[in-house]
Structure formats: structure tokens, C-alpha cells
Design brief:
The protein is of the alpha+beta class. The chain folds into two domains: 10-85, Roll (Ubiquitin-like (UB roll)); 94-162, Orthogonal Bundle (DNA polymerase, domain 1), CATH 1.10.150.120. The chain has helices at 31-38, 94-101, 111-124, 130-136, 148-162, and strands spanning 10-16, 19-25, 57-60, 63-66, 79-81. The protein has a five-stranded mixed beta sheet, sandwiched between helices.
């Protein structure tokens, strides 16, 4: 017995880095793939595709999420910030500057996810302590460092934002 399935794309509209986008997605398209392949925002890294590494972390309505675990269709009407949305013109965001200035960047693959997790934390809890920082980046895996420089970078960004 043959069964034909009709797979329909659906148009969604969402805000990414302050701009409104309309695009068509399949029911199984992830936010990660939509950002990278349809919007060409490749700063969000594709790695494990299982929500284990945090390389694809973006901010969805103020919360850090692994974009590989979010279906694009679920983001209809929502607001997303990617690593590309942090810099203003040619000026890095203070968190990005702090990562560069404090050695929080090694190979750089995990860095966008680390920065996005850090930004979500500091937006929600500007006076976060070291345990809060460790919890916030607990879902972000770095193969290059012992996390010391990353935590120092987040603390430095926190100090800058308090000024």
C-alpha cells in the first residue's frame, strides 16, 4: 500500500537582531539551520546538533537557548539575537571586547555560544557571582581551555557594564 504525504512549508515571521524577517520553513527545520542557511548568519555554530555543546546558543526572547533544539516554526512572532546582533556598526559589544582582551578566545568555535550565554546571564542578573557564571555557561563546551579565561572574561565584561 502506497501512502503519499504532503509536506508543506509554512511562512514564519520573526525578528532577528532587530530586523523583521519572513521566510518559509518545513516543520522539521531547526532555528539553527534557518539562521545559517536562509538568513546567512553563520556566527551561530553548527556542532553537535543535540544541545550538548552550546556552540549554537542564541538569545530567544531574552533567554539563552540551543538553536539546534528549537524548531524554526516555534519562533514565529518571537525575537532572536545572534552573535552578529551584538556589535553596533564596527564596535564590538563589551562582552566581545572582554573575551578578546582577557584571553577568553582560543580556537573561537565555542566563543559565540559562550558570549551569548554570558549576555543572557548579565542581562538577567547584572550582579551574577562566579557560581551563576559557571551555571550560565554550563551548557557550553570548550575543548581548548580550562574555562578560567572565559570566566575572567565574563567578570571583566560585568565590571565594564557596571560603570
Amino acid at each position: 500500500m502506497r501512502r503519499d504525504y504532503i509536506v508543506c512549508e509554512k511562512e514564519i515571521e520573526f525578528k532577528v537582531n532587530g530586523a523583521t524577517y519572513k521566510t518559509r520553513v518545513y516543520p522539521w527545520d531547526t532555528l539553527l539551520d534557518t539562521l545559517r542557511e536562509k538568513l546567512h548568519l553563520t556566527g551561530t555554530k553548527k556542532s553537535c546538533e543535540e544541545g550538548e555543546c552550546g556552540a549554537c546558543t542564541v538569545i530567544l526572547d531574552g533567554k539563552a537557548v540551543c538553536s539546534c533544539l528549537v524548531l524554526a516554526i516555534e519562533t514565529n512572532g518571537h525575537e532572536i539575537t545572534t552573535i552578529e546582533g551584538l556589535a553596533v556598526e564596527s564596535n564590538f559589544h563589551p562582552i566581545q571586547d572582554a573575551f578578546v582582551d582577557n584571553g577568553g578566545v582560543q580556537c573561537g568555535f565555542c566563543t559565540p555560544g559562550m558570549i551569548m550565554s554570558s549576555k543572557a546571564l548579565l542581562d538577567e542578573k547584572p550582579s551574577a557571582n562566579e557560581d551563576d557564571i559557571k551555571d550560565a555557561i554550563g551548557g557550553n563546551f570548550c575543548r581548548c581551555t580550562g574555562y578560567v579565561k572565559i570566566i575572567e572574561s565574563i567578570k571583566a565584561a560585568q565590571a565594564i557594564s557596571r560603570r
